[in-house]
Structures are given as C-alpha cells and as structure tokens.
Write a structure and sequence with these properties.
The protein has 130 residues and is mainly alpha-helical. Helix content is 53%, strand content 11%. It has a three-stranded antiparallel β-sheet with strand order 1-3-2.
Length: 130
C-alpha cells in the first residue's frame, strides 16, 4: 500500500487564488482520476507479466472525508495491490475488469472536465459582465 498527497510528493499546492471549494474538489478529482488511469494502463500493459499484481487506486474515500472536514487539500491517493486470485503464472490482472474500469474512468474524467469548464465559463461571464 502506498499513500501520497493528491498533488503528489506531499506538497500542498494552491490551485488558484480565485478557486472555490467546488473548483478545488474538481481539480483534486482530476488528479485522482489521472492516477487511476495510469494504474489501469500499467495493469493492462502487464497482463502477461508473471507475478504481477494489479494496482487499484482509491481517492474518492479520502476526498469525501477531506471535504466533509472542510479541507479538500488534505485528500490522499491510495494505491493498493489487488488481492484478487491469481492465475497459474501468479498474475491477477483481469482484462475485462481493466477495460471496463478504463472506460468508466475516461467518462468520469470527461464529466469532471465539463464541470470545470462550466465553472470557468461562469467566472468568465462574471468578469466580462456579459
């Protein structure tokens, strides 16, 4: 198991001087989704690697708890090794699961980016007065 700050390297980074809680949460979610996408890619790439155990990423639990405490910057990305049963070669990557998880992750990323774009469009409108 490996924990890291959602911004990577344990450093707390201010996303924007004009960001609100929703914008901050969306940025943090994108970071978590990106980490999950990298894990899925590594899992698929190692489908035939003997002894390889799939990585699983969870950031939603930590982000939800951090937001409930009012400190979304304290969210962590938790990367764990899958405990799923292994095949004869000791590998436990399930290609069906990984492909479905990859599609779901991509859709969640698109939705999160759309939400951020909508927030920024509102901000542009407020600044320009149009």
């Amino acid at each position: 198991m490996r924990d890291q700050n959602i911004h990577g390297g344990g450093a707390k980074v201010s996303i924007s001087p004009i960001s609100d809680g929703v914008t901050n949460a969306l940025h943090l979610a994108l970071n978590g989704l990106d980490a999950r996408g990298r894990a899925i890619t590594a899992n698929v790439a190692n489908i035939e690697t003997p002894g390889y155990h799939a990585a699983q990423v969870d950031f939603e639990t930590s982000l939800r708890a951090a937001l409930a405490r009012g400190d979304g910057n304290d969210a962590q990305i938790d990367t764990r090794t899958s405990l799923a049963p292994t095949r004869i070669n000791g590998n436990n990557v399930n290609i069906d699961f990984e492909l479905m998880a990859g599609e779901e992750n991509a859709l969640r990323q698109q939705l999160t980016v759309q939400a951020l774009n909508a927030k920024y469009a509102l901000l542009r409108t407020a600044i320009s007065g149009q």
